[in-house]
Specification:
Length: 258
């Protein structure tokens, strides 16, 4: 459980679980090549799976990484690295990889290695989907309250809690007047009712669980300014990625703050 506090900086770091982590690079279309393998650039070997759609100019490469799945999708406009759970190995009602701290450390280390020799880029983004299990809708609202200090949540009577906001910040890494960082966060309380599918002789049965599961969900999208269209300086890329991650973790720890 999260311990409430009037001082958000003293809030205990909660046990958020990671559904997925994402690094997105917005590239220059003229640099795209259908033969380029970002997976091979990082791992020095071919991906276990590689799908190329020539008409759409899209490449998907993916394979197992640690206890989860790693994929990289690229097209002329962007490159997306996504670290996600392996649904086959799931025992919880949600598809999660593991605790935030250890999962993020693994992803950060890997992405910083790739960003040591990155493609030319206009923008950079760090994303995450995080879950915090709770016992009920009421407990979910109570848990989110310390994070959403500008809202007054009625934890007893409220349902379908959903709050989204983008609070921009100046970057400490790139000091330009037209360069800022988007800090988009989306908070909600979710209810999940697991369904089992049974296949018998000539029929398919769906069996709903008698127990609902609840969680607080936090979606993060921390990205560089869309109004900045010049090439990002190569020598600043790793530091800029680190800044995006730190700003994301600040939201996880302290909630919706300016």
């Amino acid at each position: 459980m999260v311990e409430s506090s009037n001082n958000s900086k003293q809030m205990n770091f909660p046990k958020w679980l990671v559904e997925n982590l994402r690094l997105t690079v917005f590239t220059f279309p003229e640099d795209f090549s259908i033969d380029r393998s970002y997976w091979n650039d990082l791992f020095k070997q071919a991906a276990e799976n590689r799908n190329v759609t020539s008409k759409l100019l899209r490449i998907n490469e993916y394979g197992p990484f640690q206890n989860a799945m790693l994929s990289v999708a690229s097209d002329p406009m962007r490159v997306d690295w996504i670290f996600s759970s392996n649904p086959i190995a799931q025992e919880s009602p949600w598809s999660v990889i593991g605790p935030l701290e250890s999962t993020l450390n693994s992803f950060q280390k890997l992405m910083k290695e790739w960003l040591s020799r990155p493609p030319r880029m206009k923008r950079l983004a760090f994303g995450a989907i995080l879950r915090l299990p709770v016992d009920s809708h009421e407990m979910g609202s109570q848990t989110l309250s310390p994070y959403l200090k500008s809202l007054k949540l009625d934890s007893t009577n409220s349902r379908n809690v959903l709050y989204q906001i983008n609070r921009i910040r100046k970057s400490n890494t790139i000091n330009l007047s037209n360069f800022f960082i988007n800090r988009l966060s989306r908070w909600l309380v979710e209810e999940t009712l697991p369904i089992q599918i049974g296949i018998g002789l000539g029929n398919i049965q769906t069996i709903k669980s008698e127990k609902s599961f609840y969680c607080c969900r936090l979606d993060l999208d921390i990205s560089t300014s869309e109004v900045f269209n010049d090439e990002l300086p190569q020598d600043k890329i790793q530091d800029l990625f680190q800044e995006l991650v730190v700003l994301g973790l600040e939201i996880v720890k302290e909630g919706d703050i300016p």
